[in-house]
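Work Package 3 (structural annotation) set out to generate three-dimensional models for the target panel prioritized at the project kickoff. During this period the team completed the workflow that converts sequence records into discrete structure tokens, so that structures can be stored uniformly alongside our sequence database. As a representative example, we reproduce one entry of 278 residues exactly as it appears in the project archive.
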Amino acid sequence: MAKLIRHFVDGRYGQVHLRIAQPKHPTKRPLVCLHMFPQSGRGFETLIPLLTKDRVVIAPDFPGYGESDGPDRQITAEDYAACIWEVVDDLALAGDSDTIDLFGIHAGAKLAVEATHQQPARVENLILCSAALLTDEEIEAYWQSLDKIPLDENGRRFREFWRMQSKYAGSSVQLEMVATAFSEMLRGGENYHWGHAAIFDYNKRFASRLSELSHPILLLNPGDDLYEMTPRTLPFIKNGKMLDRRDWEPGFLQVNANELARDIGDFLTAPETVEDII
């Protein structure tokens, strides 16, 4: 098992922080893990070591989240996705193979699709987790809680952050895990809502971008708040299937890390069997 270390590279908005685990002799393509908003690559710390027997695995913090420098203006989903390639190029991550695999969760899944749209020849396989196609009404409902909450002396923003994290915590999630996710939300600072704004704006382009891809795709559907919406994405996938994991509650990145690593490993080992996945 490769040791997980932390690293910085230069990007268009400043330094990008990432977590990386590198086996001595990797034999498989690197895997890049993309987080949801307003979180960071910290959410993959339990999962990454389970995937590093024979591949390099990294989890960057998107600009403005975790420990990465942020932009001075609202940016688009296309901008966030372009930053993925800056990290890959800075690390010379693809090496001789010149291709990578992508794993994204929630917003990270949509940014994985956009990154593949931008440089399709450099991506081999995609694992999209909770990649939901939302209606305008659903976006409006989410935005009511995710839009910027002003700071005040009563601490409303912090109470709402804690409420959100507690609400979406599964029955197996420990209080310490809720506290960790809460602390990552705070790292977004005064612009913590920019990531969701970009992803909600990208929602209508997402289906079109996805339908253009011929890459093998595994659509993972855990039992989180997007469970009912994620299957809407399936008709836009040309070469892939959905794997239902309804028994995985929110917090599955930690609680079900071993099972998730198995699903990811099985798919990346034999993506040509994607048609057989049910």
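The CA atoms of residues 221 and 227 lie 6 Å apart.
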